[in-house]
Structures are given as C-alpha cells and as structure tokens.
Amino acid sequence: MAAEAISRALRDGALEGEHAPALTIKDSIHAPLGAFVFDHILAQLSSNISSSKSQAQGIVLVAFARSPQFYAELLKSKANDAASLKKWLRIVDCYTDPLGWKIQLAESGIVSNRSTQNATTASLCKNVRDLDMLFSSIVELGKEVIRETKGRFAVAIDSVSEILRHASISSAASLLSNLRSHDQVACLFWLFHSDLHEMKASSALEYISSMVACVEPISNTANGKGMNSENVPLIEQNLGRGKFSVRFKRRNGRIRLMSEELHTEQMGINFVPAFEGHVTSQSLVPKVQFNLQLSEKERNDRAKVVLPFEHQGDGKPIQIYDGRRSVSESKTENKETNAEKMHVNEDSGRGEIIYIRDSDDEMPDSDEDPDDDLISDSTIFFLTVGILELLTN
Amino acid sequence: MMSSNSANNLLDEALGFNDDGGGGGGGLLLLIEDRVETSGAFILHHLIKRRLSSPNRPNDVVVFLSFAHPFSHYDRILRKMGCNLGVQKENKRFVYYDMLNLNYPDGEKGAEDLLLSVYGKIQKTVELCSSREGYKNSTIMIDDISLMEVALCGSSNLVLDFLHYCYSLATQFDCLVIILNHEDVYSTMDVPSPLLQMEYLANIVIKAEPLATGLATDVHGQLTVLNKGICQGSGCSKGKIRNFHFRVKENCVEYFYPGSRT
C-alpha cells in the first residue's frame, strides 16, 4: 500500500552518494487531511527510530502550525515515554514566537516572561524569516541526536506554507535542497497546502521531492456554486475521507503511482484500498469527473449491438435495424417488405427515409407517430386545393 | 424554529456551546465570513451577548478590537438584545479597543510596531484575567479583518502574523478568538487569497450567504457552520457541517432548518 511504501522509503533513508529521500504531502481546503497524514508519517518514523529499525537515529521536527506540546502529546500517545522522546526528538519551535514579538514585549516589561512548559527539548526560533539561521538550527539539533560520527537524522517540517509566507520560493527551495543534500540527513518530509500558492511554487517543491503524496476530496462537490443542503453531506464526507495518491520517483527515472483511500478516526487515520472504479494504477485516461472506462459487461453489450445499415459480411442475409430489437426469422419477410418500401421512397429524391410500418406488426409502444398512416401526400394535396378554392370563393 | 432568546439555538448547537454559555474555548479560532448581501455582524453581536451573559462565568472577559464601528454602535445594538455593554465595560468584562481613531504610521515596519503594541495590550489583559479566581475563558474579537488589513497598509501577511499570535495566546490561556471577514472582498483576486489562509487556521468557519434561489422576505440567508473538531495530540473528533437558514428581526435572529418554518 502507498502509505506503507512511503514509511519504508523514509525508514531506509539515503544511499551513500545520493540525496536523501524527500516526501511532499500536499492537500487543499476541500480535502484538509494533510495534517493527519503528516502526523501518521511522523508517528511511523518515530516508531522505527525508537526501535532502531531506521537509518535515522533521531528526528528534528520544525513546528510552525502546531505547538511543540501538541507533538509531544501525539508521540507519547503512540507509546513513547518522555524520557525516550528526549533521546531522539528535537523540535525547532517556530510556533510560539515566530517573529520575536513576545521576547520584545517581555524585554520592555509590558508582559511577563512566561515560557510555556514543554516535555521535549524545543529550541525557540525567534525569526522565521531568516532561513539560513533556521537551517543552522536544524543541523545543530540534528547533531545532538546522532549517536555515531556517520549517523544521520530525519527532518520533518509541518508547514512549508508558513515558510513561504515569510520567504520567497527560491529561499525555501534552497533550504529544502540543502537539507536533502546534507550528508547527515537520512530523509525529510513536509506538508504544504497547494491552494495557498501559485503553481510554480507547488511545482518547485514537487521537483525537489522523490515522493509526492496528494490528498484529494473523495466527493466532488459543486465548488463555487454556492452552498445548499444538498452538497453539505458531500462536503462533510470530505472532512473524514480522502483519496490518497502517491507518486514515487525512482533513481532510474521511472515513475510509480499508487493510490488508496484514507479515513480519519479517533486515534489517527487508516488507509484502505481504493474502491472499484477509482484509478489504482498508472493510466493514460485523463482525470475527469466521470468514468471513461468500460466494464466487462459494457464491452460485451457493445459488441452485440447490430449497427444500422452495416454490411455484416458474414454470409447471412443483410439485416436492417429499424429501431426494433427483434432480428428473428419470423420478421425477416416484413423487414424485406419495409426495405422495398424504403427504396421506393428513397427513389423519390427527397433524401429521407420514411418507415411505413405494417400496422399488424406495429409494437404497442412504438415510437412512430401513430398518425403517420392516416394521411398521405396525395391527401394533403387535395386538402390544400380544397382550402384554396374556399378562400378564393 | 428557534430564536436567539432560547437557551440554545441552532447556531449555539452547531458551535458546540453549552447551555450556560460556555464551551467553545480551549484555544479555538472562529472565522465568520459574510457578504454584502448577507452581513454576518448579527453573529458577532450574538456571540458578544453569549460570552458576557453566562451566569456561571462571572470573570470571563471579552477583548474587542474594533476597526469598523464606534463603541456606541455596539452598545445600542446589544442594549436591544438585553445586554448593557456600558456596565460591562466599567466592570472590565468588556475591554474595548478603538482601532478607528489610532494614528496609523506609514510603511510596513511602522505597522508591525503598532501591531506589536496592540498584541502586547491583549496579552497583558488576558494574563491578568487568567490569574483571577474562577477564570474560565477569555474571548478576543476582531471586527473586521479586511479593515484591519487596510489600516496596516494592505499587508495581509501582518494580519496573518497577528492572528497566529492571537491563536497561540488562545492555546496557552484557553481563549476563543472570533474574527469577522468579508468573502467578496477577496473574490476577484488572482493570487491565493489571505482568506483561505484564515480558513486553514480556523477551527470553526461560519459562512453567511444568500440563498441559492435569491432574495426572499421570510428568509434572509443561510448559515453554514463548519466545525473541524478538536484535535489534540491524543486524538481528534470528527468534523461536522451544519446548514440552516436565518431571519434577522429587530431584537433577535431566528434560525431554522429549510422548510421547517411554519
């Protein structure tokens, strides 16, 4: 499954002489489940680190969107005690005072200098606009969790969207590239909200990544067409479920696509195989809101349709399809009669085909106009003459 | 059909408010989005009254930053709803900051310094309240965000920074942050709008929109309350959406589900 493949790739880490694997998790406001995926990946990697199964010996978590306390509680709830967390977890706290306002206010005596308690070692970042300083902080904290000289650490950034609010895309891309190419970084992953940025920013981040995990709505609602009680259940469904598509970029250039569904639950999220009808493997069919592919039954039914006026060329007499399903032998004579009549009408040069159905063979719910056999051209002519005579008299 | 005079109406239920006016604290940000056709100001007035009128919470404080109207405007409206803002202001339960008449400096640096000082006042007020006995929740309200952006030389980034700080203050001191913004102000923007940033930040989003069928005399619009649920490290509650109609009357607002009005 896709989520497991991601966890394995991050667990295995970087090969010698190669850049570290990098994962982009992206979502949008209509499928706002990216944070759940981030937490899941973080918990999985933490579990591998604490049981020494991964290349990374520790994690440096850069917290912008949620507090260090939130992450401490999250990881403790996944069977990690505080003492163990302190060994391998470091947090760069970009949440509490990202611009240094609280420090300035405390220094000028306006507010008290109350530091928030945290159970893990969180290093306060007072200026998120300085990405060089942020890079140095990450690397410094990473070295604290490495046990050997050639050891490596993982990096997780909970919101690149927040970085992009304070810095340009080129600076942000540079930060991520430098981390990825650092010889002590085993792997890194980050979350961003694709609808908060221009396409070029999204593309730049995806180019840097070796894996891109995209969370999309499970239900396509009529976005932008106004709210009503009908699309409320669909929107609510998107709060709890989503499509999870992952693109893996191999070293040899091959792309592998995997897709599944994710469901939110009380204690996190659960990944399940996608339902039938969803794209489960790489396909050239364009992504549209309706199904372009045929099922087996639909293919068989299509093969059985007798096309009108087509020479079947199989030695059997030509069967002209006149709108009725029946192609049995008992109807053959009638059809031949109809065919003769059709030829007669065609010879008149009018260019249209009129079906003159034998009334005995007429189906009860025929689509034909029942009045067709009541009036003929000659009758119309005489009627017209009669009307003209009346008018002139 | 429920009016806002009853103990709990559809809006309060959708917000997860208790009968005593509490709930909705614990570090949450509530975003109200409205439009020209459907003003969301009545929601703000309702929430002011709820937060100040709860008998079990005598020390709760509402910190109000007004960029839109003078104090007399809110006083007049809340009086009709049975709430005396003047008395609450004297008792320091309603802390009103007049942002209309401030001298706004030029340039972004000056704007940031001003914002820093405003934030400092808010943090000091909230810290003071939290030290009082019986403190439960504080509320920080901003009316409205688009005017705040204008006042800060159009810097939506500064506004978002300010909201982030309010949010972290709310998490630390168990506050509720309530902001009002206008959806149609950002509708013609080509670049991703700051309103979307706020929707990501908010835990609860209330949208006041006209009906899809247009204007009506009996129904003034529809409210959609998106409650993302509380997410803590140990687990999350599921997000919910409620949609219902409203009618604004002289002294109250009626909320009802479509088709249930007699």
UniProtKB/TrEMBL annotation, chain A:
Major localization class: cytoplasm
Matching Gene3D superfamilies: P-loop containing nucleotide triphosphate hydrolases
Pathway in which the depicted protein is active: tRNA modification; 5-methoxycarbonylmethyl-2-thiouridine-tRNA biosynthesis
Any single GO BP term: tRNA wobble uridine modification
An example Gene Ontology CC term for this record: elongator holoenzyme complex
Superkingdom of origin organism: Eukaryota
Annotated InterPro entries: Elp5, P-loop_NTPase
Subcellular localization(s) per the UniProt record: Cytoplasm; Nucleus
Disordered, as annotated region: 325-351
One GO MF term attached to the UniProt entry: tRNA binding
Keywords: Cytoplasm, Nucleus, tRNA processing
Similarity comment: family membership: Belongs to the ELP5 family.
Descriptive protein name: Elongator complex protein 5
Organism (species): Coffea arabica (Arabian coffee)
Organism lineage: Eukaryota, Viridiplantae, Streptophyta, Embryophyta, Tracheophyta
From TrEMBL, chain B:
Alphabetized InterPro entries for the sequence: ELP6, P-loop_NTPase
CDD domains given in the database record: Elp6 (cd19495)
Gene3D superfamilies: P-loop containing nucleotide triphosphate hydrolases (3.40.50.300)
GO biological process: tRNA wobble uridine modification
Pfam families: ELP6 (PF09807)
GO cellular component: elongator holoenzyme complex
Pathway where it operates: tRNA modification; 5-methoxycarbonylmethyl-2-thiouridine-tRNA biosynthesis
Family: Belongs to the ELP6 family.
UniProt name for this protein: Elongator complex protein 6 isoform X2
